[in-house]
Description:
By secondary structure, the chain is mainly α. It has 14 helices and four strands. 58% of the residues lie in helices and 5% in strands. The strands form two sheets. The protein has a two-stranded antiparallel ribbon.
Amino acid sequence: MTAAGEDARLIDRFLEMLAAEAGAARNTLAAYRSDLNGASEQLGGRLAAATPETLATLGEAWASFARATVARKAAALRRFFAFLKEEGHRPDDPGHVLPKPATARSLPRTLDHGEVDRLFAEIERRRALDPERPETLRLAAFLELLYGSGLRATELVSLPRGAIRGDAPFLILRGKGGRERLVPISDRARAAVAVWARTLPPGGTYLFPSGKGHISRVRLYQLLTALAADAGIPPGRLSPHVLRHAFATHLLEGGADLRALQMLLGHADIATTQIYTHVDARRLVELVNARHPLVDAGRSRP
């Protein structure tokens, strides 16, 4: 396969991941494809194999572009190279050499508590119709682990068969960049996994098998969007990554420490975790107004 052909193949794989794991919209995928194809053409069809020195020339070529355009192109490429490293297509990530113009960071999509309740209610409705249906039991395990533990889609679908045991309240995952993190597993999640595991034949490598491997991220995304539709939630609003965001958002709303949240999510830089603080701004204002010592002092004045 030519270098240009390899670029095209890996770009397709990357966009498939974005659609399945992050629920990226069609326009978003088209923008990523355009930016990546453009960069590949600039580098003679050798984007996936680019060295840091070669990649730096792209930033120089973008010097006349608007700041927002540079930020978008650089973000697309950084995410692409992070994907290549994570999936084992190259041993390094040269994305750090790309420019990082200061721009406002977009807020993560998430769900409110009522919408999450509707997802679980739909699971219970399906179980009431057929308590032993394996597809429903598997979906219940997916939902408990995505929302209850903040797993990434890739981490979830590739869990080994014995990763979650009934007597262990946590598991250790190796996530992006090879970083390990401790992931608490709730009693509910362990129970849901145990019920699902009883439907599996003896042996096997994966907790969520499919064919000779494990269920794909694309299939996981399809199952979740179907669940959303049945729960009365627009399918485009739900993805594995949205449930991960909901996990983080609702923990922070409940009083979780930002450093603890960073550890639970497996973020290398707390700046990544700080994006979630926007969701808690209203609660923090209410907290200051209700609990600050000066509030009581003001009330006691004549």
